[in-house]
Design goal:
Helix 4 packs parallel to helix 6. Strands 1-2 form a two-stranded antiparallel sheet. By secondary structure, the chain is an all-alpha fold. The protein has two domains: about 70 residues; about 120 residues, no CATH class. It is elongated.
Amino acid sequence: MRRSDLVQHKEKDKGGITRTSQIVFGERQHLLRVLDSLEGTDLPIARLQQERRVLEDLIHARTRDLNQINTAWDEKIGLVLSADAKPEMLEKLVKQAPEEDFYLLRLISEHPRANSKTLNKLAKHPYGAIRENVARHPNADAGTLTWLSKDRSQPLWYLVAFNPNTPTSLQRRLRDRLKKLGETQLSR
């Protein structure tokens, strides 16, 4: 998990914090590891059972949180991770997924079968890691890559510069920009 994955996003209306699926899933994974480590310890049986119950309750609570973000969350993740995932199914999952389902959408943005239409939609997602995956994806089309190269909030243009689907003239401009950046750094 990247450090940027831990960033929590403020909701626009309420001023509160939105816990994305990326964060909740990470919490659940950590709780599962703690439960696994507990099973191998030499604790009195009563304490072991009590701690196991508490951890299982917390794990179930995180699963409920994931299902509140996106119904049947684990099943959808399983579909994306399946070797049989079809481009149409990935496209449908992107259309149905709420914006807060960072984890599912990030997996789809990395998927080798994600088509250009799906990647175009994901290129507009607010989560930087998803846009980065689209910028380097071999199925991203020239229009999507051109659009991403204009994003000045992140160095997406760098990833776009090395995507083979980027139009040659844009690749040349972006690589020139990179060369100038390198020369500026060397002259300091």
